[in-house]
């Protein structure tokens, strides 16, 4: 079995010329890429930065790769130059020249010192060396572009958020929102510490904030990780809304305090009316349960006084939650007072309804000329004495009204006689 030439069949002059042209174009493209990599802003930033963490480790590896890239490129340049010199010896290359060129252009004839893994040197064909340079270039560029993308995106955004944070701190201080005195003040301190730490980490270890794109092989495929930044931006927005609410309190405090005093005053007047009505009911209505009317809660007046004091001392951060609580409680108190008045005056409303019903039936029988009927007169007078005397027994008075209604209905032909189902649950008393 014969020995096979690893370079393959000997190339002719046209094949050699085409190969040299192609390799020359690749040389020019690689040189352009390497010079661009050398001038890349991200690479210059990495060279001058005090790096930590994963970025420091990756940059050390990338620097070594870039150094190796240039060594490979120099070896590639020298091999290409040598091949060109052999081809330039004569217009029509000899067989010996073509054999040598075939070995140089196709065979593993480029030796580069080093190469890692304990090897003293590496040997490549020109095409394999191009592939290796492209691989190293892609991984180096990927690292540089990723770091540069994070540096281009996050520090500037953090600085803008920090400036907004400072403005919010100034507003917070103006309304008394300070650390240790208000939760929003504590939040501002925490956000400040987090942003300071985040910026330092982004500057020293940008790759810790890089999320590679899944399935992407292009250099720099991915995006900056803004999770921490976004969380703090939302937290600052929450604080800003709370500060705005406190500022609104400062503007509207006097009007809101006036409205509060008015609501509580109406509640007090309603309770006073309910107490007076209870006395009237107890004097005029017999045999009925009248609910007790409580007095105005002193706690609300004390809180109102505290709110006025907070306003006087410009303690807006304390006034804001107190006003909100007081407004809700004051409305509840007014509702309670109205319900109490309704409950207390219910017997008087029943008496008024019975009086109205009695007079309505008397007017009806009068229209029919029956007002002077002895039975109706007797029963009307009995019902009227009960309803217009004090104390009035509503149960007995209601039965008297019902008896008058039935008598009137019988005389009018039964058309208007109340059915049993219309009778009050207190009984008919007939």
The portion of residues assigned to helices is over 70%
Mean pLDDT: 84
Structural class: mainly alpha
How many E strands? 6
Keywords: Coiled coil
Please give a structural write-up.
The protein has 430 residues and is mostly helical. The protein has four domains: 13-148; 150-214 and 221-246; 257-344; 348-422. It is 72% helix and 5% strand. A two-stranded antiparallel ribbon has the order 1-2. The protein has a two-stranded antiparallel sheet with strand order 3-4. A two-stranded parallel ribbon has the order 5-6. α9 packs parallel to α11 (394-411). The longest helix has 58 residues, at 227-284. The protein starts with 12 loop residues before the first helix and ends in a 19-residue tail after the last helix. The model is unreliable at 415-430 (pLDDT under 50).
Summarize this, please?
Keywords: Coiled coil. The chain has 430 residues and is mainly alpha-helical.
Top keywords for this entry?
two-stranded antiparallel sheet; mainly alpha; 11 helices; disordered C terminus; 6 strands; two-stranded antiparallel ribbon; single chain; 430 residues; 4 domains
């Amino acid at each position: 079995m014969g020995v096979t030439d690893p370079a393959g069949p000997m190339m002719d002059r046209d094949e050699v010329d085409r190969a040299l042209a192609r390799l020359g174009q690749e040389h020019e493209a690689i040189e352009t890429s390497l010079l661009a990599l050398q001038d890349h802003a991200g690479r210059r930033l990495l060279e001058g930065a005090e790096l930590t963490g994963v970025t420091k480790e990756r940059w050390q590896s990338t620097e070594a790769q870039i150094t190796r890239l240039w060594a490979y490129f120099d070896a590639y340049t020298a091999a290409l130059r040598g091949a060109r010199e052999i081809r330039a010896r004569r217009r029509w290359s000899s067989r010996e020249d073509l054999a040598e060129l075939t070995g140089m252009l196709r065979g593993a004839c480029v030796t580069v010192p080093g190469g890692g893994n304990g090897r003293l040197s590496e040997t490549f064909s020109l095409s394999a060396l191009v592939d290796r340079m492209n691989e190293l270039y892609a991984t180096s560029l990927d690292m540089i572009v990723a770091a540069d993308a994070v540096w281009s995106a996050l520090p500037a955004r953090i600085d803008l958020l920090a400036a907004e944070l400072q403005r919010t701190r100034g507003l917070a201080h103006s309304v008394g929102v300070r650390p240790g005195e208000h939760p929003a003040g504590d939040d501002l301190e925490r956000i400040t510490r987090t942003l300071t730490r985040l910026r330092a980490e982004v500057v020293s270890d940008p790759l810790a904030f890089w999320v590679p794109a899944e399935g992407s092989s292009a250099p720099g495929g991915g995006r900056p990780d803004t999770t921490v930044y976004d969380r703090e931006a939302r937290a600052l927005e929450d604080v800003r809304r709370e500060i705005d609410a406190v500022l609104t309190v400062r503007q509207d405090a006097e009007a809101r305090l006036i409205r509060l005093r008015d609501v509580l005053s109406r509640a007090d007047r309603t309770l006073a009316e309910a107490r007076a009505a209870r006395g009237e009911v107890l004097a005029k209505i017999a045999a009925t349960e009248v609910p007790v009317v409580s007095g105005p809660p002193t706690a609300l007046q004390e809180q109102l006084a505290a709110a006025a004091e907070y306003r006087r001392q410009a303690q807006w951060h304390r006034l804001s939650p107190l006003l909100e609580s007081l407004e809700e409680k004051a409305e509840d108190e007014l509702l309670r007072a109205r319900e109490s008045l309704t409950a207390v005056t219910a017997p008087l409303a029943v008496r008024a309804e019975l009086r109205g019903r009695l007079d309505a039936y008397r007017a009806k029988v009068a229209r029919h000329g029956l007002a002077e009927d002895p039975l109706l007169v007797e029963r009307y007078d009995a019902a009227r004495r009960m309803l217009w005397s004090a104390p009035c027994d509503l149960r007995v008075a209601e039965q008297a009204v019902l008896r008058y209604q039935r008598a009137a209905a019988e005389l009018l032909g039964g058309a208007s006689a109340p059915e049993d189902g219309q009778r009050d649950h207190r009984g008919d008393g007939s």
